[in-house]
Amino acid sequence: GGAVASGFLGVQGVEVVILYPSGKVSEIQERQLTTLGQNIKALKVDGVFDDCQDMVKKAFLDESLAHHNLTSANSINIARWLPQMFYFFFAYKQLKSQNKPLVFSCPSGNFGNICAGIMAKKLGLPIEHFVASTNVNDTVPRFLEKGNYDPKPSKATISNAMDVGNPSNFVRIQEMYHNDLELFKKDFSSFSYTDTETLDAMKSIYKTDGYIAEPHGAVGYLGLKNELKNHPNAIGIFLETAHPIKFLDVVEPALNIKLPIPTQIESVLNKEKVSTKIKTYEELKAFLG
To answer: Mind listing the domains of the chain with CATH numbers?
Structure first.
């Protein structure tokens, strides 16, 4: 979202259209998407993340829009998550001298980041196990438990970047394991957590280590703690996904602290938010022209 908008701001020959679910992102997230102007346009979708993603996928298949040369900057496009493989290599480089197995826990919504990690393992990086840690949008944990892939409409949580009911990258992960569930389970686990459990984890991490975890990282921490019971000799790594300032409305009251505002965020706080409301694919298509 915000990183894409900033990255392409003012780039000649590139028009950026950002779809985000109305009322499902934080105030700072929305400001990062809607205040830049220039070649950045924001569409406020009456729906959830899955609705936004479904519209984008439909636009890719719409031959009448082919002249726009559409592409995606979210993890529908593997070019988004392939560079994320470097996170796993960097972590391995730092911990290699410990000579212990590594377990990675990724806060997971659309499953792009963990897909990158599994690709790194397939390329030879020695990772013992992966944990996809989710909020109550538990399509994948249920699949691993019952063997039935049954996506459901997403529910709003405090870890809103993971509010995904039908993660588009999970089919890619299954393909890397040839759709062999038992083979897959040897390398992969998935657990879901409630907002209450997430808040408790944020408080515990801060009290114990003085580390300010935002909700997504806290979910990753919980999944890692759970899985390390099965790997007592391993080193565990949980990935963070964002600066806590993006979720200050959750972090500040949970931890009873006041977060300093980074300079780049200060610059958008007093700007006018500009977005176009849409509800249907036809409205998106009309906007694209």
So the answer is: 2-74+261-288 (3.40.50.1100), 82-252 (3.40.50.1100)
